[in-house]
């Protein structure tokens, strides 16, 4: 109880409240601009967090990412351009509603169910994390290795492209993480005699390059999105309570699916939205209405992607294994602020954890009024010409990268990773898998090599311990999943072809 | 949707010649440009590059000195990853991954990669410029050049690009230098604060 009161005091500090408000506005604006994703919004916040108190730093990341995931729905609904990839799953549906003249309903559903999803996700974090923390205390390097590896495999499933290309991206990320001396033996690897490479490649310049610079590069070769037509909105929350009652069951299913996907290391909001939208269509009583402006899918997927955001913090806080690319950034900030992830965080820094929960709830509550304001102002914000926004983003990339290490080499890295991300995306290689490879590479190697040394080169202990056995099975399941689908499709295709031939 | 229909007028002259309206369709749901004639790297090329990279990593990794008295050392991980990359690269080059893809997911079609594609190199080139020039010219001037060139490349008219190039670096400098205390280089032109 004392911890909770202490947490309230921590969150009520003026600097934290200002940080929450400012990052909420920032997240709403950046998320709503097409092409600027929630991950990018978070990555560009990192240099700002250097200067904030630990709680305020975490608050900015939590608030900005939650707002950006919601506000990605706005251009999706009004222009059929998702503001963030997490909104892409139901963009067509939302736009169909707008065409029917029900833009208020679509935007309101995005807002209302985002907030509900965020709060339910937070509750799951509150309930799950301490339970898992006890379990995590007994984890050894074997379990950590499998967890990290499972995260990487999940990251390859997220991508809606060839799983082989996704695995290749991930391996490329792991290879990048080999650079430098950050390995168990402390041997300099792949440094090519460049001193700047001895320390390895920092995740932040890589992230900024892959998510922000490549986006500016893409803006150079794609036409500008059409300007938003001005329109008057009616009441935004008017029918949401009715929708909540009508689609109560899909809403809960969305929340639960989002939580489960968020907890899986490596899989985040994008995947949650796709899976939930597909499930909603599959289990709906009226699947034929999907795609024609039917709010059911919006309810389920909108709740799901925000729910996954909060539960994605579970593996991050407990094991230091990111739930998605946003928490990958958050983990870096946690380390920097002395809130090292791990089970002890919940016992020794309980008040900070409570503060984190409170920030999540607060962020999702203020999302509703601020979101309404944002929807009303969307026409003005989205009118900002891309030729003005993108150059500023680029300047921020350069300065942000410089700020993380105060050396110009990071700026160069940002440029290099921008090119890499651009080329990869153009050719169907998912960049999120690359980033998670870079972020988790050192951890995977550390636990893999330590485990091998402990077991004298024997791989059997990797499967012997009960928890590591389960995790290993899950990892191989994720690895073989695409193969299973392929075989199933093949068989079904053959059966259908045979059936067709028989007729 | 071609460029004219987007309501954006390309700047006359060079820019128009570079970015000829083409029979291209923008798939807004994915935000990517879908085009009939595509000049992007084929799977053969990217797969081949991955095979070469993986092989190089594996070979270079296996030559790393071992830690005395230990079976597994710094060589193990690069060797493993390198081999994995070789396998993935080969699979991609032979087009095996394609049959795994659900057709609708084949969504990475390239944009116009001809002359227009060169514009994509503007941002990395400007970042390189920042690395080379920031210490000598100072942040304000370097930033102004970067913003102006980038805005111009994106089709902004000087009426927008010039004020932006003056105001944006000043604001960024104020935020990062004054508030966040990032040691931005002064160079030729020092900020008034």
UniProtKB/TrEMBL annotation, chain A:
Domain DUF112: 17-436
Regions crossing the membrane: 7-29, 49-70, 105-132, 144-162, 256-277, 313-335, 356-379, 391-424, 431-449, 469-488
Pfam families: TctA
Keyword Repressor listed: no
Keywords: Membrane, Transmembrane, Transmembrane helix
Keyword Transmembrane: yes
InterPro entries: DUF112_TM
Name used for this protein in its record: C4-dicarboxylate ABC transporter permease
Native organism taxonomy: Bacteria, Pseudomonadati, Pseudomonadota, Alphaproteobacteria, Acetobacterales
